[in-house]
């Protein structure tokens, strides 16, 4: 009777040990599978990060060199979506900021620091050109001037206003017409014509929108003003 009881105990212990072994083996396999999944996912995430293209200031296509300010801007889309002006990753004017309007939109930036000085918009359809002229006359030397049209930026323009904008480095301002789309970046005291300007004429045969041409966009690197 004693031997039978001892044999039963041995069998129970053996079953327990076997069960424990099987469970531990299964657990280890599952742990290995989970760890493998985690490591594989980490490797994929790392690969995705390494292949993701870098983002530059204002979303421009390449980094600007030292002592340059990154900028990107777009004209308005018909009379629906306002223009957008970004400098050094700071959106200066946009419909979201609620500081754009019909006509010519202007942002002034400090040529040495890249800091925003002022933003204004001037209605060139139903407004008066006089406030634009007075504003242009107050711009200080060394100021970066960014301009973008929305809806119509030309109807009320006169020769004096066009001349003042031309002196900032614009070449297209002389023939900017009704509902043309135009973006421009120049500066007060500039000695040459600015390379930063895009202009699309309002033409019923080529317009993207009914009565308006397509949006014009422009990006680049503005040299920092040196003492």
UniProtKB/TrEMBL annotation:
Molecular-function GO term, any one: carbohydrate binding
Alphabetized UniProt keyword annotations: Disulfide bond, Lectin, Membrane, Secreted, Signal, Transmembrane, Transmembrane helix
Protein name: FAM3C protein
InterPro entries: FAM3 (IPR039220), ILEI/PANDER_dom (IPR039477), ILEI_FAM3C (IPR039475)
Membrane-spanning segments: 6-23
Residues in ILEI/PANDER domain copies: 102-189
Family from the record: Belongs to the FAM3 family.
Key word Transmembrane present: yes
Organism from which the protein derives: Falcunculus frontatus (Eastern shriketit)
Domain of life: Eukaryota
Entry-linked PROSITE patterns: GG_LECTIN
């Amino acid at each position: 009777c004693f031997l039978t009881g001892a044999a039963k105990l041995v069998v129970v212990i053996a079953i327990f040990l076997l069960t424990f072994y099987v469970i531990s083996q299964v657990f280890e396999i599952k742990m290995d599978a989970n760890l493998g999944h985690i490591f594989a996912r980490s490797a994929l995430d790392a690969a995705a990060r390494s292949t993701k293209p870098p983002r530059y200031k204002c979303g421009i296509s390449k980094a600007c060199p030292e002592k340059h300010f990154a900028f990107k801007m777009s004209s308005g889309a018909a009379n629906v979506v306002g223009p957008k002006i970004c400098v050094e990753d700071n959106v200066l004017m946009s419909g979201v900021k609620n500081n754009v309007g019909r006509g010519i939109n202007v942002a002034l930036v400090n040529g040495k620091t890249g800091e925003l000085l002022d933003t204004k918009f001037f209605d060139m359809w139903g407004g008066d050109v006089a406030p634009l002229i007075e504003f242009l006359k107050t711009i200080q030397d060394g100021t970066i001037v960014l301009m973008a049209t929305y809806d119509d930026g030309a109807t009320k323009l006169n020769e004096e206003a066009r001349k003042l904008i031309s002196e900032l480095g614009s070449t297209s301002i002389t023939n900017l017409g009704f509902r043309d789309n135009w973006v421009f970046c120049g500066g007060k005291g500039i000695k040459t014509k600015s390379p930063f300007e895009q202009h699309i004429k309002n033409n019923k045969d080529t317009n993207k929108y009914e009565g308006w041409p397509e949006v014009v966009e422009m990006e680049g690197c503005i040299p920092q003003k040196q003492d």
